[in-house]
Specification:
single chain; minor pseudopilin epsh fold; binds manganese (II) ion
């Protein structure tokens, strides 16, 4: 029997200051250690609540529990994907996609510039707190944009996420104040395209 586990905060593959000036050390530290950690802690607290109720034989308020759990799980998964698709500018981050990803972006969006424009519009117009995401529909073999509100609303179930951008205010407010557009513009300097391409290629093999 495999032992079950708790959620853990993943380490970043770069130093906290490595994404500056596009994301400052202070902003990234807070985002990773406080906000992302908060979703990990929240998900684990709910796992403990489930275990406790099961051992006691007491009922869980499933509707409230699962709504909250979905929020924390979504937050944890999306942040993990987000960190992995970032890299310091000029050291794996920025530039343009290559390989399969470049071909698919050109086929589905017409050009890389058109893709950037649409992704930017999706990220800019996300209401309240949420995410802009590039995903793939394996059924139709198409790249699609997804605009996730909070961490869990408007999700296409089962679609693999290829690239994620966090547009919650906590992602950029220290560095950009209310200028979300500037944060999105600067995101293109730190996108790790090789990871996005690997995710596409592994989705196509699955
Ligand atoms: Mn965040």
């Amino acid at each position: 029997m495999v032992e079950s586990k708790k959620y853990t905060l993943p380490a970043l593959s770069f130093e906290y200051g490595a994404l500056a000036p596009f994301i400052s050390e202070k902003q990234l530290t807070l985002h990773h250690q406080k906000h992302h950690q908060g979703y990990v802690t929240g998900a684990n607290a709910l796992l403990e609540k489930m275990e406790k109720a099961r051992s006691e034989g007491s009922d869980l308020d499933q509707k409230a529990l699962l709504k909250e759990f979905s929020f924390h799980i979504g937050g944890h998964r999306l942040h993990t994907l987000f960190w992995e698709n970032l890299a310091p500018a000029g050291k794996g981050g920025g530039g343009a996609p290559a390989g399969t990803l470049a071909e698919w972006i050109n086929r589905d969006f017409g050009s890389f510039d058109r893709f950037k424009k649409e992704f930017t519009q999706a990220a800019s117009s996300t209401e309240g707190s949420g995410w802009a995401v590039l995903t793939i529909c394996l059924g139709t073999q198409r790249l699609l944009l997804m605009q996730v509100e909070k961490h869990n609303v408007h999700v296409y179930p089962g679609f693999k996420i290829l690239m994620a951008l966090d547009v919650w205010e906590h992602a950029y407010y220290l560095d950009y104040m209310n200028d979300r557009a500037k944060f999105i513009e600067n995101f293109w300097n730190i996108v790790r395209w090789d990871v996005v391409n690997q995710r596409l290629e592994s989705a196509l093999k699955s």
